[in-house]
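Annex B. Sample input.
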Amino acid sequence: MATVVAVVAALAAACCFAVAAVMQQAAAASEPESASLRPRLFLDLMRRPLWLAGAAMSVLSYVIQGVALAFGSLVLVLPLAALDLVFALPMVAWRRRKRLTRREAVGALCTAGGVAAFLAVLPPSTGIVAPDLRDWLPLLALAAACVCVLVPVGLRRPGRTRTALYAAAAGVLFALLDSLTRSVAGLFRDNGIGVLAHWEPYGLLLVGGTGMLLAQSSFQAGPLTVSLPLIDTIEPIGGVLMGALVFQERLATSGALAVQGLGALAAVAGIVVLDRSP
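Annex B, continued. Sample output.
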């Protein structure tokens, strides 16, 4: 029963996030370049009804994904969350009264088929609920190092390069955010309000706020065809690796691991195709 709840919630979260990203990018793209990476960007966007609707959808997506992570592992939930555009693209095409192209259909099949192949050979695993701080420290240091390298370089680069670097940094932080959410959800399930005595909820707020600022800055700096493929690829891959390394969740071994690798490659290729759709 727990696995069913995790799967259904992860799929619902994927749909909500894709719609939210499209709405937020449409609003953020009209902001001036000088607002990038500044709190002013949030203040300006909060005056836009379209962005507020996207933000509400994004929060709903996060809550639903938190439910999924309370019942399922990172290695199960995050590949399903990578299906966001498979759900959103048909709705956007219907709204614009356009038909999906053969290229988009192939991209959707690659993404869905790749995720299905990855999960088909995934061994059952619960992992640990709340890793010790010493297990988190190398991961926190690596994520901080990535952001501290990518963001300053992005500040010195124009256009699409800046978009890509900000999006890559956001993807890293979103993967870390998913891992912290998994820990907070487990602690809340076991301790209730006692979860506030742990550091994870406060780390979650810091990482989430920073990741959100970087994502909005990447949306503002350039098109979704650059930012979304990076976020949609780095977040699930990073989250799965964090699940295996920090939460001790099991991946496949031997020949089944090769199937998972090929499935992951097919899913990434499909994501790139879908994210580049007009």
